[in-house]
Amino acid sequence: MSAPPAAPLSAKAALARLIAFPTVSAASNLDLLNWVETTLAPLGARFRRFPSPDGTKANLFASIGPDAPGGLVLSGHTDVVPTAGQDWTGDPFVMREENGRLIGRGATDMKGFLACCIAAAQSVATLPLVKPLHLAFSYDEEVGCTGVWPMAEWLGGSGLSPQLAVIGEPSSLQVIDAHKGGLIGWATVTGKPGHSSQPDRYVNAVMVAGELIAFINGLRREFAAGGRHEGLDPPY
User: Fold this and answer.
1) Nearest 5°: phi and psi at 61?
2) 98, 141, 142, 233: which is the annotated catalytic residue?
């Protein structure tokens, strides 16, 4: 006889396991991802990893249900901020309960959400899903959201076309339906060296860079005068 399927983990039990992985941004998250795959594989989940350039970390994209477009993405990051030099009264990587609160590094930001994702996946996997449920777990969010890009770019061209994504950042249990975006770019200004007595013959890179900064500041004024969303502060 085959062994009976393992009992589903509660969100609380999943959180305790997730906190136990010390996935500060400077450390690997691969052991955590291995555990997630082991937990979700019996549900028939399909996995795809997106390794970091040095191979020490990865993003994980897991899908449950039909291999079809549409569906829902539950997205969160696996890394947590450091604990060194902080006044913890217990091991930050051992979850404990005090006064009805679950305490541990990342309990709120954001392994609590990852635990809910795992519990939800176990709950819906037994249902006759018409659309898939996707879990997108990333790395290096705490150091500038630098890890998620390969997974996000792949998803954009994958044809899966999910209808909705829920990002599990802490929000005091309020649904946040709008968020400001960001654009980061790099510019290199190369001058032509020469003596300051002959500025018309040479190019001062600092002066040109100053013009570039002024242009960016002009964009800021354009944004302030453009589209608005009154739920944001400031609303542009």
Assistant:
1) -120, 115
2) 141
